[in-house]
Amino acid sequence: MTAKAFHEIDRELAAGTDDVASMSAALFELDAHPGMAHVRRYSPSGVTAQRWAHAEETLRRLWDFLTQAMSALDSARTARDRSGLDDVRLAELRHMLRELPQTLDDTRAVIRVLDAVDEIDSQVAHGLAPIMTRLDEVGAGYPPEIVELLDIAATDPLSLTASGVTERLTAIAEWAALRENWTEALADTAGAVDLVRAAFAGAAGTRRRVEQQVLTAPLPTLPDPEPALRRQLRSLTEVDPAALQELRRRIDATLREIRADEAVAQGLLDRRDELTGRLRGYQAKAARLGLVEDADLVSSMRIATGLLSRRPCDLRAVTRAVADYQQVIASKRGRAG
To answer: Taking the CA of residue 14 as centre, how many other CA atoms within 13 Å lie in the half-sphere pointing to its CB?
Structure first.
């Protein structure tokens, strides 16, 4: 074997040694990953078990490949020192070294799984720590939501999302705040029930105005929700943050429903005002064109204003009348042009 051939082999062996060393370092670093410690400490279940089973198999294959690559390099070095590498051994070594980039990609895939495990676990741990510390300080037990979140984060963290954990932590923090400030929380909730009463009265007023001013099908009407909400609030004679949270959610849902129904009714009044404004705008346009006293326009305006003045008025009929007035203006203007 020529000196040049030995030099080429030495160069390939050095490059292969560096690549294998990089892979070895990556695998040992991965072995110390906090996500790895997590899946070893807690037996994965659910989504985490499925993803970890694939990652674990990949990891086993990577370690096997590393062992084979190290053995192949050792054999190649020994053969080189003795008599040089024959073409077969050199081809086998090159083939194995060409697979290293793919193994590094596989390593990164495993790291992504472990990163996801650690991120959820850390988010839960850091989010719950101050809440649990405060509860411990006042000698309060943990709500079921804390126990459940800790259990899921331990055994199936990949079934959770960052946003989902944030929502759970927010609800748990609210629970703790309600418990710690119970009297104030009750007063705030009573104020929220007052808002329901005011919103219900406001919606009823809007609905009455619509019924007086606009011809429409029966509008959605809720039974007065305040009495039931007030009774539920008064039933909270002991500290029960979960029950108060449920009541607050019910209050929020009721307010949304009341306001949505009122928005439907208000939309009809707004539509009437819009048609009135459009008619005035077209009338101003007719004046600029010198057509205000045109007999056809006067007749069309009389029809539109008459329909608008009715109580209740037919919005469909008014819409057609305003459109007719606009078309008459366009027709007159075209003839004048």
So the answer is: 6
Spatial contact of 250 and 244, defined as CB atoms under 8 Å apart? no
Domains of the chain, by residue range, sit at: 3-177, 182-267, 272-336
DSSP one-letter string for 193-253: HHHHHHHHHHHHHHHHHHHHHB--SPPP-----HHHHHHHHHT--S--HHHHHHHHHHHHH
Cβ atoms of 328 and 284 within 8 Å: the answer is: no
pLDDT tens digits, residue range 176-197? 999 999 999 999 999 999 999 9
Q: Which two tokens stand for residue 323?
A: 């459109």
Which amino acid makes up residue 208? R
pLDDT tens, residue by residue, 27-51: 888 888 999 999 999 999 999 999 9
93, 76 in Cβ contact below 8 A? yes
Helix (H, G, I), strand (E, B) or coil at 287: helix
3-state secondary structure at position 142: coil
Residue entry with tokens 């160069």: 11
Q: Match 């929502």 to its residue by tokens.
A: 167
Rounded to the nearest 5°, which phi and psi values hold at 214?
A: -130, 135
Q: Using CA atoms, how far apart are residues 302 and 189, in angstroms rounded to an integer?
A: 53
Give the pair of three-digit tokens for residue 231.
């009774």
- Residue 310, amino acid: R
DSSP 102-127: HHHHHHHHHHHHHHHHHHHHHHHHHH
**Given CA atoms 178, 182, 186, 192 in this order, what sign does their dihedral have?**
negative
Question: Mind giving me the DSSP string for 50-119?
Answer: HHHHHHHHHHHHHHHHHHHHHHHHHHHHHHHHHT---HHHHHHHHHHHHTHHHHHHHHHHHHHHHHHHHH
Which residues have a Cβ under 8 Å from the Cβ of 199 and sit 6 or more positions away?
255, 258, 259, 262
- Whole-angstrom distance, CA of residue 49 vs CA of residue 43: 8
Is the overall model pTM greater than 0.70, yes or no? no
